[in-house]
Design goal:
Blueprint: E1 9-15, H1 19-25, H2 27-33, E2 38-42, H3 53-56, E3 62-66, E4 76-80, E5 86-89, E6 102-107, E7 110-116, H4 125-150, E8 154-160, H5 184-194, E9 202-203, H6 204-208, E10 235-239, H7 241-244, E11 247-252, E12 268-272
Parallel strand pairs: 1-2, 7-8
Antiparallel strand pairs: 1-12, 2-4, 3-4, 5-6, 6-7, 8-10, 9-10, 11-12
Helix pairs in contact: 4-5
């Protein structure tokens, strides 16, 4: 029995690519129909007061918004059916806590976080920022796992990790070896996160679909990337092993057509029993 309060815990993560825009293109309708118990959003890019009421504080949800200090940038949110027992914005970083990139809540038996890891750009300060974030965040993840276990909780960190870990995680891996998101040092960092002797976390979707190409969750708006399924799997649910062992189903809610997309990302959902 999941201590969350029922036999099943369903968690969804999605980068909305601007929540105000997504709300006008179908997110509101999607939210009304989702069966998720917890919803993690990234790249909200709005202050709470700028959001329409139906996404700022929708009926039936408890919502935490963590906007970035820089207006119109980043921003993460967490929607839960149950009221959180604790809310934390940021991960104790002097540089990044006001950047709208991390929020976590305690629920019965589980810590859930929404993460928007910097995207980076090779040869620029944006990549340096990404590397600094990664170094700080890995240490935080290690401590979080230990603290949660001492409190009798599992952990799941959901979001746009902006790194494809393996060749199976992006269609055009050969052409992206020197691009941010598939650099050797970024992939090695994720390996550390997933190393039982280091970070100690599990890539839940990959654990359920070990031999699958993808399933991709982001497709560029350029060209025919979506139509050709030339995508990346960068939206991850990363959990402690105990929770990962309870995962029974994982899927990407890919839009039926390009025109029906309300973001360049698709929702990724995992069901835990």
């Amino acid at each position: 029995m999941c201590r969350y309060g029922g036999p099943v815990l369903t968690v969804t993560t999605v980068n909305v690519n601007g929540l105000r825009a997504a709300a006008k293109k179908g997110f509101v309708e999607w939210l009304a129909g989702t069966t998720a118990d917890v919803l993690c959003l990234q790249e909200v890019r709005a202050e709470p007061e700028q959001l329409p009421a139906e996404v700022r504080d929708p009926e039936g949800w408890h919502v935490v918004h963590a906007p970035a200090a820089a207006k119109g940038r980043a921003g993460v949110s967490l929607y839960t059916r149950r009221a959180p027992e604790r809310v934390q914005i940021g991960f104790g970083s002097a540089e990044f806590d006001a950047s709208g990139r991390y929020v976590e809540v305690d629920l019965p038996g589980v810590v859930v976080a929404s993460l928007y890891l910097p995207s980076g750009e090779v040869g620029t300060e944006r990549q340096d920022e990404k590397i600094r974030f990664m170094a700080e965040f890995l240490e935080y993840l290690k401590g979080l796992r230990v603290r949660a276990a001492a409190d009798g909780r599992e952990v799941v960190v959901c979001g746009d990790w902006n790194i494809a870990h393996a060749e199976a995680d992006l269609k055009n891996w050969r052409g992206n070896k020197k691009n941010s998101g598939f650099l050797p040092e970024e992939r090695e960092w994720l390996s550390q996160v997933f190393d039982a002797a280091d970070g100690g976390y599990v890539d839940v979707v990959r654990a359920l679909h070990p031999e699958t190409e993808g399933p991709y969750s982001w497709w560029s708006y350029r060209g025919r990337a979506f139509d050709n399924d030339t995508g990346w799997r960068i939206d991850l649910l990363v959990s402690t092993p105990g929770l990962a062992a309870r995962a029974v189903k994982a899927y990407v809610e890919r839009a039926a057509t390009h025109e029906l997309r309300w973001s360049d990302h698709a929702p990724v959902t995992v069901v835990f029993e």
